[in-house]
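Lab meeting tomorrow. Look over both lines:
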Amino acid sequence: MPREQLIQAAEELKEASASVSGETKDRLESQAESLRGLAEAEHGPDHGRLDRIMHVLSELKNDVDEETAERIDSAYDHVKAHRETVSGV
């Protein structure tokens, strides 16, 4: 199932959120929930939605320690892998 990548990304972000606090934690949890919802939706996300998620992940990576950044990178890679399966642009 191609959307398995989105579930993996959500799990990485949930794990990453455990090591941070405040707004960063809230944003990571929000992205994890969004990805899980997109993975389970009848119609998957389009390129634009995935690009916005990838952009947010890139921003969040700058606000965390190295270990958490690695988890965010992993989530980013999962989203990117899924995006490559989406038809269109």
Notes: The CA atoms of residues 28 and 83 lie 19 Å apart.
